[in-house]
Amino acid sequence: MITAAWLSLTTFAASAGATSTPTGFHGHVTIGPLQPVCHVGTPCDGPAKRVTLTFTKPNVVRRAVTTTTGAYRIVLPAGFYTVRANRGMRIKPARVWAHRGYDPKLNFAIDTGIR
After folding, report:
1. Are 53 and 84 in contact (CB under 8 A)?
2. pTM
């Protein structure tokens, strides 16, 4: 038989362990082309190692630095952001929307401009 005290205790324990999802993004960043001529069997792009991504909206600037594998994670206040990278010429996507309570995977591609 389940008692009211046990039910209250388990409900409290379940709610105490619950966490809310942070607002932000995570994923990988690639950069390329890395050479003027791409060869079959050789990747033309690679992970963007130790690149700083800057997310900007009015009165908010946040930065994330990628790992050696190009991975990043950032927590942001909800809103519309312009994204820039400290390497390369362009980044796609360059504008993103951070939805409150969501932390989706979002990959970026940086164009080096090598042609």
Report:
1. yes
2. 0.79
Question: Which pLDDT score is estimated for 19?
Answer: 54
Token pair of 109, please? 């591609």
CA dist 55 and 70 (Å) reads 17
| pLDDT tens-digit readout, 53-102 | 999 999 999 999 999 999 999 999 999 999 999 998 999 999 999 999 99
Average the pLDDT over 36-46 and give the result.
Answer: 89
Measure Cα distances from 74 to 24, 28, 30, 85 in Å: 5, 12, 17, 14
Taking the C-alpha atoms of residue 77 and residue 87, their distance in angstroms, rounded to an integer, is 25
The DSSP annotation for 56-85 comes to EETTEEEEEE--TTSEEEEE--SEEEEEEE
**What are the residue ranges of helices labelled H in the chain?**
4-17
